[in-house]
Design goal:
The chain is mainly alpha-helical. Helices cover 63% and strands 0% of the residues. The protein folds into 2 domains: 3-98, no CATH class; 117-161, no CATH class.
Length: 162
């Protein structure tokens, strides 16, 4: 499961807690929520078509890298949206598992996302003179020398992140 899928699934728990009808499996509902949140039905139908008898691995591979959603998640989403039948899904899932892709999908792993809001807020507080340079460096966990370089966009890390 990708970081995005995990976060969307957990968001589903927060939003659906106490709101599901009796007898509905909360884990399955949160999986469905995460799928719909990250790959809305309209997008899935546009990208994969309304009804398919099979999917190519390369299609799922391209979608994985374009949208940051795992191949397994695209396969499940195709089933949820009725693009493929349960039988086709199970057949593809068997092949997926036989290739060892449930543990390690082909291609480079999706990169971890690094939220930057905290960093932005520290620099904003510095610009507005709510905090000192020393406090900003401390909050960002940087030595003063590196903080000065990054502040002036002289650090190779700061330039590479842009």
């Amino acid at each position: 499961m990708t970081q995005q899928s995990t976060l969307a699934h957990e968001l589903g728990h927060l939003l659906l807690q106490g709101r599901l009808a009796e007898g509905i499996d909360e884990e399955k509902a949160c999986d469905r929520f995460a799928g719909a949140f990250l790959a809305p039905r309209v997008a899935v139908l546009q990208l994969l078509g309304e009804r398919r008898h099979a999917l190519e691995w390369q299609e799922l591979y391209v979608l994985k890298h374009e949208f940051g959603l795992s191949m397994a998640a695209w396969l499940q989403r195709a089933k949820q949206c009725g693009v493929i039948s349960e039988a086709v899904y199970l057949s593809l899932l068997k092949c997926f598992s036989a290739r060892g892709w449930r543990k390690n999908e082909p291609g480079a792993p999706l990169p971890q996302e690094h939220p930057r809001l905290f960093e932005q807020l520290v620099y904003r507080a510095l610009a507005e003179q709510y905090i000192s340079e020393g406090k900003a460096a401390e909050l960002l966990g940087l030595p003063m020398m590196r903080f000065h370089k990054e502040r002036q966009l002289e650090s190779s890390d700061a330039v590479a992140d842009q």
